Amino acid sequence: MQTRLDINTADPKALKAMYALETYLASSELSTTLKELIKIRSSQINNCAFCINMHTTDAIKNGETAQRIFLLSAWKEVADLYTEEEQVALTMTEEITLIANNGLSDATYQKACSLFSETQIAQIIMAIATINAWNRIAVSTHKPI
Fold this sequence. Notes:
Helix content is 68%, strand content 0%. The protein is mainly alpha-helical. Helix 3 packs parallel to helix 6 (84-97) and helix 6 (84-97) packs antiparallel against helix 7 (106-115). The longest helix is centred in the C-terminal third of the chain and has 23 residues, at 118-140. The relative contact order is 0.19.
C-alpha cells in the first residue's frame, strides 16, 4: 500500500488540534489500561493496523497481558477476563465506533451510568471519538506501521 500525504507536514495545525485531545485524555480520570483497551478495540473495528500496532505495544509497556490483548476482538466470549467497567467501556466503544448501527444504546448508557460518573462517561466518549478520528487519519493516509 502506497503511503499518502503526511498531515503533520501538509497541515500541522490539524494535528495540533488532535494532540490537544490527547492532552485532555491524558489528564482524565480514566486508567491507562481502560484507555488502551478502548484504543485497541476501536482500531480493530476500523482495521487500522498502525493504531493496533501502536496501542498494543503501549498496552504491553503499561502492564497489559498478552492474553487480554490477543482476545480483545472476542472479549464477549471471555468476558471474565475483563472487569465489569471494562466490559461496559468496550460495549460503548463498539456501539459508538459502529454508530451507523444505532449508536450508543439506552441499555449500555444506563449500565455506564451505574458504574461511572457523568465526567467519566464523557471522558470515555471522548476517548472513543478521539481514537476513531486517529483511525480515520491513519487509514486514509495509509500510515505505515
